[in-house]
Design a protein that fits this description.
This protein is mainly α. The protein has one domain. The protein is 64% helix and 2% strand. A two-stranded antiparallel ribbon has the order 1-2. Strand 1 and strand 2 form a beta hairpin. The chain is globular, with a radius of gyration of 22 Å. It comes from Paenarthrobacter histidinolovorans.
């Protein structure tokens, strides 16, 4: 065993035998294991970097991007680049239920089309947690790199969102009915990406000094401004959930909250001094509130969402087992177009009872991690991201989109990595060693 230092400058003891040694090669051959995982680690850091702009890329002539992600998951599985997690059975069983849902619900429409959607989601759910856990355990820097890649690319997208509010077009992307898309492809997606970025900023801020802190303050201002510019109420609610989790897990006192508020106010002040119009920035939110409450005409008002809920629930009550089919052609509700903006109802409506059980099981597992973090006072950024995604999913069209699932799975897997004062959580089955992976930057 040897003593090393983490990103916070604190000492920790690195275990002699790492999990990835047993996975990638002979025990004790850590250099070969690290080299074997280096290329895959780099690839997944790149994937984390494109998550904020995933939809923009896919809609810009790269429609095969989802298939590329599937290949990047299957290849490590074939060569043994996987590592079990606690509650592995839940993810595997959920993947099996999703496949079952695709086959059964497809009988209502098109079995082949329904299964195609089911297979893509089942691979993501059934393989990604274990492939990503391998790379987390293969390198302590993996968590820092994926967080940095995500934050940098997302901040570029957020800057584009601010430009769109000012009436500019960025790479052909413009504001959507006054709401900023950034480079995310949709205001709601941009909003969630901003929330995740803000959580990462808070986590990194605690372990950085000097010029890096100044850069993080800039990133926080850009992403907060972009979040407001999206007018996404679902994202604002998810930000509130993330903030509550951060405050509880970090055991933040009045002083910390005041300092954070003052820092945020100073950042906003700098943007105002630079000439940003707060009225233009808040206009999307004000308009969105009017739309949702029915004060003005628009898509996805509260009344329209309620109609989708009633339509989906009526169908579920009449046939709780089968579902209408998992493929996109069956996602419409009362008007054949508008989807259910609630991930639980959406899953049950399209995939039937098997899909509901799969999504409910994963949700319980994720929420358990959030509760555990709040009780233990550890894993603040991971828990905050998990809470943010779940709250967002409750009011959005969250379904099989890789852009939503990847941040959720990354945060979930990161929540099992070792903290500064202890080893990682292990599966209940006997294991050969301990992990050398690191938590997300700034985690407690």
């Amino acid at each position: 065993m040897r003593v090393e230092k983490n990103m916070s400058g604190q000492s920790y003891v690195r275990p002699k035998y790492a999990l990835h040694n047993q996975t990638a090669g002979a025990p004790g051959n850590s250099r070969n294991a690290s080299d074997d995982g280096r290329i895959g680690s780099f690839v997944w850091v790149a994937v984390a970097g494109i998550i904020p702009v995933y939809r923009f890329i896919a809609e810009s002539g790269f429609a095969w991007l989802p298939q590329v992600i599937i290949v990047l998951l299957v290849l490590p599985l074939l060569v043994g680049r996987v590592r079990a997690l606690p509650n592995t059975i839940v993810w595997v069983a959920s993947a099996a239920l999703i496949l079952l849902a695709g086959a059964i619900s497809g009988t209502s429409s098109d079995v082949a089309a329904s299964l195609r959607t089911a297979v893509g989601l089942a691979v993501l759910v059934g393989i990604a947690p274990f492939v990503l856990n391998y790379y987390f355990t293969a390198s302590r820097s993996f968590s820092r790199r994926i967080a940095t890649a995500f934050l940098c690319v997302q901040s570029v997208s957020a800057t584009a969102a601010l430009a769109q509010v000012a009436g500019l077009s960025v790479l052909g992307a413009e504001a959507n009915s006054g709401r900023a898309n950034g480079l995310a492809g949709h205001p709601n997606v941009q909003g969630l990406m901003c929330v995740i970025a803000l959580v990462l900023v808070v986590a990194m801020f605690r372990s950085t000094r000097g010029i890096r802190r100044a850069a993080l303050m800039l990133f926080s201002g850009v992403n907060l401004g972009a979040l407001i510019a999206t007018g996404s109420l679902s994202s604002l609610l998810s930000l509130g959930a993330a903030a509550v989790v951060l405050i509880i897990v970090y055991r933040a006192g009045v002083r910390s909250i005041l300092l954070g508020t003052l820092g945020l106010a100073a950042t906003v002040g700098l943007f105002l001094a630079a000439g940003f119009d707060p009225g233009a920035l808040l206009a999307p939110v004000n308009h969105r509130i009017d739309v949702v409450t029915g004060e003005s005409v628009g898509v996805a008002s509260l009344g329209i969402r309620q109609q989708t809920y009633v339509f989906a629930w009526d169908y579920i009550q009449s046939d709780p087992l089968i579902g209408v089919g998992m493929d996109p052609t069956n996602q419409g509700t009362y008007n054949g177009i508008t989807v259910v903006h609630n991930y639980i109802l959406h899953a049950w409506y399209q995939g039937g009872l098997a899909m509901f059980l799969a999504i409910a099981s994963i949700s319980i597992l994720v929420l358990a991690r959030v509760v555990r973090a709040m009780v233990s006072g550890k894993k603040a950024p991971e828990a905050a991201i998990l809470a943010a995604v779940i709250v967002y999913a409750l009011g959005s069209a969250f379904y099989d989109q890789q852009q939503y699932w990847l941040p959720l799975i990354l945060a979930f897997v990161a929540s099992f990595q070792p903290t500064d004062d202890g080893p990682p959580e292990q599966p209940k089955a006997p294991t050969a060693g301990r992990s050398s992976a690191a938590p997300l930057p700034g985690t407690k």
